[in-house]
Amino acid sequence: MSDENPNEAVVESAGTPAQVDKRAAHNERIIRTAIACMMGILAGIASFIFAGQVDPATGSQPNAIIGGLILLAGIVFQRHIFMIAKIDYTALGGKDWFYQAFMTFSLWFISWTLLLTSTIFPQ
Q: Is residue 36 part of a domain?
């Protein structure tokens, strides 16, 4: 930092406009991934709650199809959360929506499976 320009430190810390755009895009991707993960966990918990009592012999629930419907609702509902979070969902392509759906499915599957197996094998 030189004595001639007192604002030099501010310019260095802000970065170039390209770096700022890359950082903003990266932060938006992190937020989108966090939303997909939270929707998956919430859908897994809701699937466990609404699909009925777990049969201890088989580990299944009588209305397991409701769990799949809740998963689909969680994937579709992300669009509305993106609107609330002011994320431009119109810029997302097919690959981006597939990623969102896959992350939601993964966390839904893991959380629902953990809840089902915890009731079969109580501590």
A: yes
* Cβ neighbours for 31, distance < 8 A, ≥ 6 positions apart: 85, 87
As a whole number of angstroms, the distance between CA 38 and CA 36 comes to 6
For residue 88, tell me if it sits in a domain: yes
pLDDT, tens only, 87-121: 888 888 899 999 999 999 999 999 998 988 876 65
**Number of domains, the chain:** 1
Q: How big is the CA angle at 1 (ends 3 and 10), to the nearest 5 degrees?
A: 105
Three-state DSSP string of 5-61 = CCCHHHHHHHCCHHHHHHHHHHHHHHHHHHHHHHHHHHHHHHHHHHCCCCCCCCCCC
Whether 29 is covered by a domain: the verdict is yes
Domain that holds residue 83: 8-120
Give 27-39 pLDDT, tens digit per residue: 999 999 999 999 9
